[in-house]
From TrEMBL, chains A, B:
This is Transcriptional regulator. One of its GO terms (molecular function) is pyridoxal phosphate binding. InterPro entries: Aminotransferase_I/II_large, HTH_trans_reg/aminotransferase, PyrdxlP-dep_Trfase, PyrdxlP-dep_Trfase_major, PyrdxlP-dep_Trfase_small, Tscrpt_reg_HTH_GntR, WH-like_DNA-bd_sf, WH_DNA-bd_sf. Keywords: DNA-binding, Pyridoxal phosphate, Transcription, Transcription regulation. Residues 8-76 form the HTH gntR-type domain. It holds the Pfam family Aminotran_1_2. PANTHER family: HTH-TYPE TRANSCRIPTIONAL REGULATORY PROTEIN GABR, TRANSCRIPTIONAL REGULATORY PROTEIN. In the C-terminal section; belongs to the class-I pyridoxal-phosphate-dependent aminotransferase family. It comes from Novosphingobium nitrogenifigens DSM 19370. Signal peptide: none annotated.
């Protein structure tokens, strides 16, 4: 059949009508589409036909549904609406939705799926102390110092990385706005639209959202408690020739897995043979009791780019991400940061440097690690009482990756939990292939409310 | 002639050799090329042949020269090395070079071409006061509040914009890391590679650098002291169909020109007819004695996106940029910011909000405006004594756009000035077409050193 009002289906006609309006810019990006009822009246078709057409347009990423407020033309580049993963995004597994949920202030909510420490676990007093000291001084932190960012902070980071076996001189370290910003800069620097990037399955959900914004093609490798599945890793690298592999290694998000030395060595050998780069997001490193293997330590920052931040450990109020990479790339990355965000956050860098130098950050982390270890043991025990056993018992950190009892769908469970004021992180949001939906990520520091276990008990019993 | 070692020129052979190595990834991005001498020895060609080949590769953006350290393979995407303007970039007119120079700490240098106020003009005491108050409190600023950024700051910005006639509700305002970051986000949101963007000639040099990073095509319209040349504007918009026009309107950088109401109205009419968006970078607004016309005020944020920041007026230590735009775009832009940099800088936003609320920012700006007016009058008079007359006498701000006496090349002048510890901003760095090189931008707050006028006097006399 030829397209046109005669030959095209009714649904197709409405799809073509909306597409045409967008193309002629009658409907601008962000504009609200006519309501289903209005469109039905205008076109003379039934409401169900309009709904089907809108659904098709939404599935194609042309428009976006916002529950309760209707349909909207997707943003011009639609960087977040157009998923380049194997499955079309669903709201309940949309990483941007999860990211927003992790920020929204939900008074009284039990944030069992959160990715951050509770506010009262953060380094509030250390930060206030550093602020008082800075306020007493008569020099202002200034952006006009170094293109790479506050020098003393880079010197501290260089020494701290050495404790993890990572050799990076201060001149190989660029300060950024956050860990996320570091990763974004690296992707901008290294990726072209359509490039293939390898992720763990599961992985931190923002990797998925960020790679959509870069219009990269995502392929995935299954995780094991020691690192990526090596046979699958070798196979997918050979077949897909990814440009980058992005991972949390020593403290994996969401599983809490720890990279083994064997895995680190083998993955690096495969990466080397395929000339693939590795971006190691190491923002949880200060949670470790014992230093695990790291790609950056094994490789010496040759094909590994190492990202860090204090947001997860000290406070997310002082934005100071950083990235350590090959000496001959750092200036180009600094240029890119300069042109796209100007300099980093000088006050944040100075306050954090003061907190590291005066020992208050170290003291804070000692306390946090102890509290984390106790919370981890407590939550694992409480889950065990319900017959739930984590996928692996993490060596450190706050994340616990928990399989649900047979048949329970984590997205459905998360919806039910939300009605009781409990925010869960369903497994599929962490999965490049939309899998793992029989798992949830729990934050052991946010699970102590008895209502949470009561909810879980009911779910396990039903 | 066919390409190949027989038919190709010697220069062409070296070019092909280097290109091949880069394509086969023997030479990785950022890698240093063999020295001219080493390449001459390897190939058996003369050093001048190698130099010519390297120059050609540099002109094509494949490699980059770093004076004193040799030639390097351009970054993978080479976002900053590949200029899409009418002329190939030259080091002396490279905006990234200028941007770096504006940050480098050059002890004792006279920063007559700087784009910022001297450190002792900034709001140091107000910032310290706000820090003391924040350190006394027992709540930490937190990123976990709102996806758009610290609400009280957005409410303050909404009220302050209204004083300029710009109606933007707090929900139309997104906080970012900086003015530059705002512009980068907007470009990411609206531009595809190859899209055409209209700039003023001259314009803020970072617009050029940023648009290179976005691989946009730049077209330019000549400035007049009342805004863009209207006939040229209409003509270039009709011919080139730009997607965006990016400008500083009320306080133009580098010329200090003030947009007239006539120009604002006419430009908006042309933009509307062509369905072109306008990004108004209004980071200098608090320098104004009298509120000038603004695109955002005339248009009501329909096709105008308004960018602001406190970095130029209060301090660049507290990074808090913002962008005001159509209500139906703000959530998508917030998503993009969330995914690419997570949240803004909560501490910076809270401290700046405190400075605005307690009146110390207003007091600071009253003082700065008075000092600026005196400095402007003083520098205009001192230049007049040398027979130099600015292109226009700005109504406010720190920038003065000064034509040089006949025959003087601003890039050459800047090179000579640098040898005497004087940093100048040559005109061509502000020009999308590499023009205006008989002008310099002066910062009236950084010109008081007698050595600067002595230098100018010698230049004018020679």
């Amino acid at each position: 059949m030829l397209p046109g009002s005669g030959g095209e289906t009714r649904v197709g006609q409405i799809v073509a009508l909306v597409r045409g309006r967008i193309e002629r810019r009658v409907l601008l990006p962000g504009a609200r589409l006519p309501s289903v009822r209005a469109m039905a009246e205008t076109t003379g078709f039934s409401k169900s036909t309009v709904v089907e057409a809108y659904d098709r347009l939404a599935a194609e990423g042309v428009i976006r549904a916002r529950p309760g407020s209707g349909f909207f033309v997707a943003a011009p580049l639609a960087p977040l609406a157009v998923a380049d993963v194997e499955q079309a995004p669903r709201r309940d597994i949309d990483p941007v939705w999860m990211l927003r949920r992790s920020i929204e202030d939900l008074p009284g909510a039990i944030r069992a799926g959160s990715g951050t420490l509770p506010t009262d676990w953060l380094a509030g007093e250390a930060m206030r102390k550093a602020m008082r000291a800075a306020a007493r001084g008569n020099t202002l932190p200034s952006a006009d110092v170094s293109v790479l960012g506050y020098g003393p902070m880079r010197a501290l980071l260089s020494r701290r990385m050495l404790e993890q076996g990572v050799e990076a001189s201060p001149d190989q370290i660029l300060l950024t706005e956050s860990g996320t910003h570091s990763l974004d800069l690296v992707c901008r620097f290294l990726l072209q639209p359509g490039d293939t990037v390898l992720l763990d399955d599961p992985c931190f959900f923002n990797f998925l959202a960020l790679l959509r914004a870069h219009r990269a093609r995502v392929v995935a490798v299954p995780m094991t408690p020691q690192g990526p599945d090596l046979a699958a890793f070798a196979e997918v690298v050979a077949r897909e020739k990814p440009r980058l592999y992005i991972t949390n290694s020593a403290v994996h998000n969401p599983t809490g897995a720890t990279l083994s030395a064997t895995h680190a060595h083998r993955v690096l050998k495969i990466a080397e043979a395929a000339d693939m780069l590795i971006v190691e997001d190491d923002i949880f490193c200060d949670f470790e009791h014992v230093t695990a293997s790291r790609y950056a330590a094994f490789d010496g920052l040759d094909r590994v780019i190492r990202i860090g931040s204090f947001s997860k450990t000290a406070t997310n109020a002082l934005r100071c991400g950083h990235v350590a990479l090959r000496a001959d790339w750092v200036e180009s990355l600094a240029d890119l940061r300069l042109v796209t965000t100007y300099v980093g956050n000088p006050l944040g860098a100075e306050l954090l440097a003061a907190m590291v130098t005066d020992g208050s950050y170290r003291h804070h982390m000692d306390m946090v690690r102890n509290r984390l270890a106790r919370a981890m043991a407590r939550v694992v025990r409480r889950l065990g009482d319900l017959g739930l056993e984590p996928w692996t018992v993490p060596a450190c950190g706050m994340s616990l990756w928990v399989p649900l009892p047979g048949g329970l769908d984590a997205s459905v469970l998360a919806g039910e939990a939300l009605e009781e004021g409990i925010v869960l992180a369903p497994g599929a949001v962490f999965s490049p292939r939309g899998g793992w939906n029989d798992h949830v990520r729990l934050n052991v520091t946010q699970c102590d409310d008895p209502r949470f276990y009561a909810f879980l008990a009911r779910m396990c019993a039903s």
